[in-house]
Specification:
Elements (H helix, E strand, L loop, with lengths): L2 H9 L18 E3 L1 H6 L6 E4 L3 H6 L6 E2 L5 H4 L9 E4 L4 H12 L4 E4 L2 H10 L31 H4 L6 H17 L12 E6 L6 H10 L7 E6 L4 H12 L2 E7 L5 E6 L47 E6 L4 H16 L4 E5 L19 H9 L17 H12 L5 H10 L3 E5 H7 L10 E4 L1 H9 L1 E6 L1
Parallel strand pairs: 1-5, 2-3, 2-4, 4-5, 6-7, 10-11, 10-14, 11-12, 12-13
Antiparallel strand pairs: 7-9, 8-9
Helix pairs in contact: 9-11, 11-14
Protein name: Rhodanese domain-containing protein
Organism: Bifidobacterium bifidum
Pfam families: DrsE_2, Rhodanese, TusA
Length: 466
């Protein structure tokens, strides 16, 4: 690091002393205000983002290393020390602590005053002509036009899908538009690309997302898909879906009748249902990404400094045998499968009743096993609610309401899940305890144990116990 760069970065910092944050020996935390941070040449510093990955997904900062605050103690060695380190969290409290820790370890650490929230508020207050001076992807305010994504108050993913700088974004958008109009992409060999329309009006979550994914998956790069939907959640879901699958959201707006109109250009390969999940498009710890880095199609695996693959598999443990909880699990599972994620649902104890065939199957059982079988619900049609079941009346009412609201039934959601490669795994140990035999389970169910669950959990970024 040259003395000029170090002096330049130092000049950009605000060295006001806050006695409550100073070390006992008189050392003070170096600070940088949002205004000075906006003008800072980000290539001269290392950016350390302490927020949770979900926060980074919605509002990311280009080139920042993301190490959540609760992991900083074990991953501190992943922060390079060849340049000053600007540390930030959401509101600036955690980053102050980490700045002190880094300073004690010999880093030239600088805290962003007010955190990323204050930085975004500052950017939003900038005059329009200064927007292009900032290269911070999602953090940059968008021009608000009638019918635009910004006026709809949806996540930043819909306002700007890429975390790249504006110059590269315009290039990629132009390339996509060119491909759509001239068919000049590798997959179509110069042929005119597809233009398809998907009518998702009336479908409830996750129906619209699943329908868009199923339609777009087999089509070539360069395909332009137009869809219409009426589900309110689709307004947010489709923006996140495009971001996580690497496809380009061309436009997103809602008309005066409440119909959501979406145009998507397919710009990334989409894995088949059940295939290994794509790597996280954000910058992994220890590897910064510049605005000039070209966007690549999602890869099957990515760099992980802790070892192993960066994966986005999803694992659900269904312990409860309640109808409402099971419906929620399969809605989330189908949504994840539509995003190209590998999904495993592990059924144990009372959750095994969900997998039982509705009709009696003759198998040899002990007296205790037969008693268990008689007392437990056989199949999804016999499941009750976790609350207000009222002797089964509540479950029938929920099914009637779901049908009237055009929400898929549990049986339909389960078929949809298996069609999209979702793994259904029954716990062998629980089956033995409760006297359930494999012959009594519906088709397509695997048998597994604790290692099966742990193997799935270790490649998942989310495991839910229901």
């Amino acid at each position: 690091m040259s003395h000029e760069h170090m002096r330049g970065a130092s000049d950009m910092t605000d060295k006001r002393i806050d006695s409550s944050l100073a070390d006992d020996d008189g050392d003070a935390i170096k600070r940088i205000t949002p205004a000075r941070f906006a003008e800072l040449d980000k290539s001269t510093v290392t950016l350390l983002d302490l927020r949770e990955p979900d926060e980074v997904l919605v509002h990311g900062l280009d080139g920042a290393i993301n190490i959540p605050f609760n992991q900083i103690g074990t991953r501190l060695s992943q922060v390079p020390n060849d340049k000053p380190v600007v540390v930030f969290c959401r509101v600036g409290d955690w980053s102050e602590q980490v700045t002190e820790i880094l300073a004690d370890r010999g880093y030239d650490a600088i805290n962003l005053d007010g955190g990323f929230q204050a930085y975004r508020e500052y950017l939003a207050s900038l005059p329009q002509q200064r927007e292009n001076d900032v290269d911070d992807g999602d953090a940059r305010p968008e021009k608000q036009t009638k019918g635009s994504a910004a006026t709809l108050s949806i996540p930043a993913a819909a306002q700007q899908i890429s975390l790249r700088g504006p110059e590269h974004e315009s290039k990629s958008t132009g390339a996509a538009d060119s491909a759509a109009s001239h068919g000049s992409n590798g997959d179509t060999d110069g042929a005119q690309p597809h233009a398809v329309f998907v009518d998702a009006k009336g479908l409830k979550c996750p129906g619209p997302i699943v329908k868009v994914a199923d339609t777009l998956r087999p089509l070539p790069i360069g395909t332009r898909l137009t869809t219409e939907a009426t589900e309110d959640a689709f307004l947010s879901d489709i923006a996140v879906w495009c971001e996580r699958t690497g496809n380009h959201l061309v436009s997103l707006e809602r008309d005066e009748n409440g119909v959501i109109h979406v145009v998507i250009d397919k710009t990334a390969h989409m894995p088949a249902p059940g295939a290994p999940a794509a790597a996280c498009p954000s910058s992994p710890a220890g590897r910064a990404v510049s605005a000039e880095t070209p966007a690549a199609a999602p890869q099957q695996t990515g760099f992980n400094p802790d070892g192993g693959d960066v994966r986005h598999d999803k694992t659900f443990v269904v312990f409860s045998g309640d109808l409402d909880k099971t419906i929620a699990v399969f809605i989330m599972a189908n949504g994840a499968a539509a995003m190209g994620r590998k999904v495993t649902i592990f059924f144990t104890f009372w959750g095994l009743n969900i997998l039982r065939k509705p009709k009696r199957v003759r198998v040899r059982k002990t007296l205790i096993e037969r008693m268990f079988g008689m007392m437990m619900p056989r199949g999804t049609r016999k499941l009750g609610l976790s609350r207000m079941n009222m002797g089964g009346i509540g479950a029938k009412m929920i099914r009637w309401i779901m049908k009237s609201k055009n929400v898929e039934s549990l049986e339909s959601l389960m078929k949809q899940a298996t069609d999209h490669g979702v793994r259904l795994v029954a716990c062998q140990m629980s089956m033995d305890i409760m006297g359930i035999h494999q012959e009594e389970l519906i088709d397509g169910v695997e048998l597994g144990g604790v290692s099966t669950f742990l193997g799935s959990g270790e490649t998942s970024d989310m495991s839910l116990f229901v």
